[in-house]
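Obj: model holo form, ligand = PBG.
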Amino acid sequence: MTDTPPFPTTRLRRLRQHPKLRDLVRETILTPHDFIVPMFVKFGENTRVPIVSMPGQEQVTVDLIADEAKALEALGIPAIILFGIPEEKDSVGSDAYDDDGIIQQAVRAIKDSGSEIMVITDVCLCEYTDHGHCGIIDESTGKPDVNNDRTLELLVKEAVSHANAGADMIAPSGMMDGMIHALRTGLDGEGFSHIPIMSYAAKFSSAFYGPFRDAAESAPQFGDRRTYQMDPANGREALREVAVDLAEGADILMVKPALSYLDVIHAVKQKYPEVPLAGYHVSGEFSMVKAAAEKGWIDEQRVTLEILTSIKRAGADMILTYSAKEVCGWLA
Ligand code: PBG
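Output (holo structure tokens):
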């Protein structure tokens, strides 16, 4: 018996000394094709509003969105995911399912421009409700909470409206019970059985969403999302959520956030290797790298590439990331 493994690491290390072999023996390689880019769109004209807590990111008016999409397409990025900021919010999130809502207009603008980038829409109510929750609030119980089933009806209306506008895929992020089944049935019933669903299947109740809530102006005005998002401590629960969404008809699964949940990404991929899996490298994960880099404490490029590579290595087939544009520049 010897401790020497059949393929000693010294041999691999020798291979890596050759610059070309180093690439050939590398297990995980990032490419522009791995990325889905989140974009924030608002009403108005010719305006870009920098998102202070997410350096380099902007809210963009709907007349500029098609050019943005084309620029990303030119980099080889296959898809974007749109988040809308409505002109007015109300208690039932009306703009979300208005055929002239912000997302519907943005999708039409991109499609009319001739861009072939895949357009994914986030299906949720939190950007559209004045209270900032992901669903309709039930006051009747004395302790206000989201009414799951009334919310489902509105999410179906929202998804159908997005599909009518030309969305290529919907990504429901509200974490309501029975959501994927309701959306699949609703889309099929309206002739959209070809529109896939990317489910935020394992979405944790995370403090890393902080900067996004500035960007989308969607911070909850009372309480938090713990009644419908998952406890960061629960990895096994994540696998159960994933199983339910798969059974209900999800086409692509997502784990969110990604970096603090690499174990969940890995576990989902091990258990369902055949199912496409996305990791969402969320706003807080992005912004903390930016902040440390601004202080000169870390090498932004190397840290960003290391993080995204780790998400892919853990098992994600695709990554939603605000860094995509910069990374494409670095990779080129
Ligand atoms: C909900 C939604 C959120 C994010 C994406 N979709 C916010 C939330 O649940 O509060 C967060 C993404 C990020 O932090 O980058 N529509």
